[in-house]
Design a protein that fits this description.
single chain; 883 residues; Beta-Lactamase; 5 domains; six-stranded antiparallel sheet; 25 helices; flat
């Protein structure tokens, strides 16, 4: 749309478009959601890239700027009245509406959910219609096809014969379904040589043959599909068979698919074929073809189930005949005979059984016969029955059974598995014989002995098992409690550190703005009162400046802890850095403490900020000094290490690191102190002796540099702090520009842009005091106006965090107008992600002194790359911005 030539369209060039249209187009182009604008009385079309697939391959890019009636004549009867209503002020919402589209050289069945909203001019007039569109065709078709498959499964589940299953299939497919305008189902007969028509729908009599020899080549390729067990596509049906109506659509069916119906249990073989017409308003894509394959699969399953039902019915009839003969014989036997099903439930007992129990047949069926079993024998009886049925093996057991007169009789029960002719398990057949007289005295003695043995063995076994279960459960519970406590402690530590980090980063910008005003004005007052007769005001002003500088240092420490400060990492040799700091360390810790440096030979280079490394060493040295009030030894060493998985949140992840170790022989730390060591503002020192930010700042810097920290301490023996920095390539540092390089440089005209009036005014005052000319602007828009009006501006000084247009956005606009103009960014909160890729000479951190300001301005002017800022000025990635 942006590259389209609009000069020849009715809308004219974009710069002459109404503001309402421009605003709507901006929203449309910046959205990934399909959006369309109908503009003017002709409803000229404007749309974004996300809308292009809806137009298909025949309507884009010709649709841009063209009247909607011309582009969508096939659907204007739907769109036109809706758009006319919106021009009267009535917004619309349409869900899953059938919209027939000619977008791929045929009239296509498509469904959409869309809304129409009026686009109003400033005076309230409606100039056009804004539409958000979602194509729901795939979902609507998917739901429709899923409904057909469910209906097939439901209707055919109750079919017990093949003809009924075929009839149910055709009725479902022929129930006005656009995806199956007609269908015919042929199945092989019993001899397997002829395909016979079982059912059809939507086809006139004679259109498909009633019988097709399997070895023939019929016009519908039915036999071919069955022989090959592969689908056959038939095109140009009107030329082959005359007009075949689609019923739902006015167009005739032009294409059909012949699908083989798989044979149950026959790998790669077919038992029939389904001829189905293809929806003339849908392409036979993978989704459509997959649906038809599922239909054929359902048909194969339904036919297999129906044939299984027919076979089962035949087997049931044969079994019923044999069952009648068996029962006649069993009723004449003198013993009790019973029959059960495969689940072990009694299905029949003979006349002798009923005479013994004195109960009706229905009372003893199922599990009813168990009511007559003695309660003491019932568990054993159930168990033996269950085992025999599960393993399908013969069994024999004795139990007590109640006779019709109430006496308990000993019964000898024998059962054998019963199978059908085809090997199917039918259950058990058994007999019961009353052996009460022979077993009465024997049973009493055995029962007493077995009961005593069972109780003794069971008691000992249960006690042992229960004791072991309780011990195992107790061990598992203790392990889970310990693991949970460790996880909760780590989580609380991370939450505390993250909460303080977010708070620090949030207020750093405002504090640095305030400190910039204080420091700037204090510096200006110091120069103004430098020659005054009374020195007292100058001393007070100096105190203000020093306090402001201490505040700035404290904010920097907080940013270091929260990992929000902007680092300037370089490839660094830590051995060389420590050697340069030797005298400073000796002076810092005092004469009562021995300082020992132990550098590692062939130490790997580290990627770190040199200034921050020195602060880390000094912080740890001061902590060690304060822990050795009576003197001791402070050891600083370096080493190359390779670490595995971390065990604590402050430690680094796996990899190669350069290790900086500071060890003292002081008092060490207790466990409760060690647990809080990295918390900001926590200190064990007396008031005024420490801020509690030392170790927090060390951890923040190490983590932001890609490393971590590990503490080892023994109360009364000392503490060792190991700081890990990521390993990098060969060492080498870039030299910072010297002040001598700026000597003799002429004053410049500086554009100062800051939304904070106090910060902007003091910055302008400092620049003017340094001899520069200043042009002020309070916003990005005002800055662009100043830049257009003043050709003598030499450099731009931009605040990063401004409402509306940020400093980064303003810098991109400046580059479009003045590509060579140097830019320096001023920030009170150095967001490392926002300023990633910007060279450090282009960043000035708040608060600053006049000397810092002058050095940055002159350095940027002296730098030949000052006007390029290639990484910054690259167009932003829309996907990244969306994140």
């Amino acid at each position: 749309m942006r590259s389209h030539d609009w000069s020849e369209s009715p809308l004219g060039p974009p710069e002459r478009w109404p503001d309402a249209l421009k605003m709507a187009v901006s929203i449309c182009l910046n959205s990934r959601f399909p959006m369309l604008i109908w503009w003017g009385p002709e409803f000229s079309m404007l749309y974004n890239d996300a809308y292009r697939p809806i137009l298909g391959m025949t309507k884009h890019p010709a649709s841009l700027g063209r009247p909607g009636r011309v582009i969508w004549p096939e659907t204007w009867s739907i769109f036109g009245p809706q758009l006319a209503g919106v021009l009267e002020g009535e917004a619309t919402w349409s869900q899953d509406v059938l919209i027939p589209l000619d977008r791929n050289n045929y009239l296509e069945e498509a469904y959409f959910t869309y809304s129409y909203s009026p686009i109003k001019h400033a005076d309230g007039r409606i100039g056009g219609v804004f539409s958000a569109v979602t194509e729901t065709t795939e979902r609507v078709l998917g739901e429709r096809r899923l409904k057909i498959l469910r209906e097939l499964a439901s209707r055919t589940a109750e079919s017990r014969t093949v003809p009924d299953a075929c009839r149910q299939v055709v009725e479902v497919l022929g129930a006005g379904n656009p995806d199956t305008p007609f269908c015919a189902l042929h199945l092989l007969d019993e001899d397997g040589n002829t395909l016979r028509l079982c059912a059809s729908h939507g086809l006139a009599a004679g259109k498909v043959p009633a019988e097709v020899p399997l070895d023939a080549d019929d016009p519908w390729c039915i036999a071919r599909a069955v022989r090959s067990a592969e689908a056959v596509s038939l095109d140009f049906l009107p030329f082959r068979f005359g007009s075949l109506p689609a019923h739902v659509w006015p167009e005739p069916v032009r294409r059909a698919l012949v699908l083989p119906v798989a044979r149950a249990g026959g790998a790669g073989e077919a038992s029939g074929a389904l001829v189905v017409g293809i929806n003339p308003r849908r392409a036979l894509d993978d989704s459509y073809r997959g649906f038809l394959d599922l239909v054929a699969g359902h048909i194969a399953t339904a036919i297999a189930n129906a044939r299984a039902s027919e076979a089962e019915r035949r087997r049931a009839d044969e079994h019923a005949l044999l069952e009648t003969r068996f029962r006649d014989l069993a009723d004449s036997a003198p013993v009790m005979i019973w029959v059960s099903d495969p689940d072990g439930r009694c299905t029949w007992v003979n006349r002798s059984w009923l005479t013994f129990s004195g109960r009706a047949m229905e009372d003893d069926l199922g599990d009813g016969w168990l009511d007559n079993v003695h309660p003491e024998d019932l568990p054993r009886c159930r168990k033996i029955h269950h085992t025999a049925f599960a393993q399908r093996v013969p069994f024999r057991m004795e139990f007590r059974m109640r006779r019709h007169d109430g006496d308990w009789c000993h019964v000898d029960d024998t059962g054998v598995p019963h199978y059908a002719a085809d090997g199917a398990f039918l259950g058990f057949i058994g007999s019961c014989v009353d052996v009460s007289d022979a077993r009465r005295w024997e049973m009493a003695l055995r029962r007493s002995r077995e009961e005593l043995i069972r109780l003794n063995e069971t008691l000992e076994t249960r006690v042992a098992e229960r004791t072991e279960d309780l011990a195992a459960a107790n061990r598992q519970l203790l392990a889970q409690i310990e693991e949970r406590e460790q996880i909760e402690a780590t989580l609380r530590q991370l939450q505390r550190l993250d909460a303080v980090g977010q708070l620090t980063a949030g207020v750093a910008h405002d504090f640095n703005n305030l400190l910039t005003v204080v420091l700037g004005n204090a510096s200006w007052l110091e120069r103004a009162w430098a020659g005054a007769d009374d020195p007292r005001p100058l001393r007070r002003i100096t105190h203000i400046r020093i306090a402001a500088e201490r505040g700035a240092k404290l904010v920097a420490q907080l940013l270091a802890f929260s990992r929000r400060q902007r680092l300037e990492p370089r490839t660094l040799d830590l051995n060389e850095t420590l050697e340069k700091m030797r005298e400073l360390l000796v002076t810092t810790v005092g004469g009562g403490i021995t300082v020992e440096l132990a550098p590692k030979a062939e130490l790997w280079p580290a990627l770190v900020d040199p200034t921050q490394v020195e602060l880390v060493v000094l912080n740890l040295a001061i902590n060690g000094r304060d822990a050795m009030s009576d003197g001791g030894r402070l050891t600083v060493r370096t080493d190359n290490v390779t670490l595995g998985d971390q065990t604590r949140p402050e430690e680094p992840g796996p990899g190669d690191y350069v290790e900086l170790t500071v060890a003292d022989t002081g008092t060490g730390m207790e466990e409760d102190v060690l647990a809080k060591a990295f918390e900001p503002f926590f200190t064990t020192k007396s008031v005024g002796k420490g801020s509690g930010l030392g170790l927090s700042q060390v951890l923040g810097f190490a983590k932001q540099s890609g490393g971590g920290v590990r503490i080892e301490t023994v109360p009364g023996e000392g503490t060792t702090v190991r700081v890990y920095f990521p390993r990098t390539g060969a060492a080498g540092e870039g030299a910072a520009p010297s002040a001598a390089g700026f000597a003799g440089m002429a004053p410049a005209c500086v554009l100062v842009v800051d939304d904070d009036d106090a910060v902007r005014h003091i910055t302008a005052s400092l620049l003017e005091g340094l001899g520069h000319t200043v042009v002020e602007a309070g916003s990005g828009g005002a800055a662009l106006e100043r830049l257009a009006a003043r050709a003598d501006i030499d450099i731009a000084l931009l605040d990063v965090a401004m409402p509306g247009m940020s400093g980064i956005d303003l810098a991109r606009e400046i580059r479009q107008r003045r590509p060579a103009l140097p830019v320096v960014f001023v920030t009170g909160y150095a967001d490392t992600a926002l300023l990633a890729g910007i060279r450090h000479e282009h960043v000035l951190k708040k608060p600053f002194l006049d000397t810092d300001l002058d050095r940055k301005v002159r350095a940027a002017l002296a730098n030949t790359r000052a006007g390029t800022l290639d990484a910054l000025m690259a167009e932003p990635d829309p996907a990244a911005e969306a994140d």
